[in-house]
Each structure stands twice: as C-alpha cells, then as structure tokens.
Amino acid sequence: MEDANHNNRFFRWMVVQAYKHDGLLHRQWSPAYLTEETDDYWALSSRASLVTESDGRRWMTKEHAVFILFKNKWMNIICMMKDGGGICYYVNVASPTILDSGFLKYIDYDLDVKLFPDSTIKELDEQEFERHVLTYGYQPDLTSAVKKSFSEIKNLMAENAFPFKEKDVTLIYQKFLDENRPLTLPEDVVPKK
To answer: Angle at the Cα of 153 (from 151 to 159), degrees rounded to 5?
Structure first.
C-alpha cells in the first residue's frame, strides 16, 4: 500500500478475492479494514462481510472476524468471534496472498482446517482437493506444497502458535474498533443551541 495513504483509515478498507487454479474468481469479500500489516501478513477486520460467490450468490457473514492473509505461507485464516465466547478458526490452504491493483488475492487450493473454541480440529474438503488435482492438473511440486501446508497448519494449532492464540486475535480486533470509533467534534466546535 502506498505510504501516503497507509495511515489514512479511509484508504485502509480492502477487498479480498479468492481464485481457483484456473484463474477464475471463486469468491470475494466486501471491504474489510486493514488493521495491521507486517512483513509476514495482512490482518483485516470486520463486523460482518458480504460474500459474493462465483455463481453470483451473495450472503452475509454473521460474526465479527479477523482475516489473516500470509504473504509467504500457503494459508490464510478467518478468525470468527463467537457470541458465546471463543474464536473459531477457518483455515484455507492457499497460495501466499499478493496485493494486486488494490485487491488482496490468493488461489484457494481446496483443503481447509477448522479449529473450534473447544480445541476440536476438523479437516475439510480432502475429496475436493483430490478431484481438483486431476481436474486442474496440479503439478507434483504444487501438490506437495499444499500437503505440507496442511500438515503445518495442524502443527501450529497444536502448538497454539500465532494466529491460533485468542489473545493475539482479540488485540488485532480491538485495534480495529479503536481506530474506527465515530468521529466526535471537540466541545468548542459544537454549535450552541
């Protein structure tokens, strides 16, 4: 992001786009707020997002969330804050995310892992991945990178490493709330009745 706009909160709202291996748009999220950027990741936050699927279907997320998009790791994580407490982590095995023409973009490689607040881990979409290996003709080195990331994700969850620490995600989300409080005028500027 250009430095001139980096600290202006109105320029920090970004759209995330997920593609499939064939280059077609798979899913897009309405703008979320760029709460934090490091050399390793972008962290976006939202109270809710409008999700548009490739077939045009649209739906709204219900939870407050932090979306961690890694620049060099084959994964990204949606950290969903549950009303009853705790965070549910939905991890996409995906290409590293890039910033392209103002959009954060990645290729979704099907495999997903979900970590529930009670520490239950559920592996998802393994059959879809195996089908797409054939359909899209994933090369052996790509298949290897995806499987390696799938294993790494489960290890990070077991180690309670970033971003699978509730405290880390909560701090990022609180920063989003603090930076997006309604603007108030100083008392000496407020018109008198």
So the answer is: 105
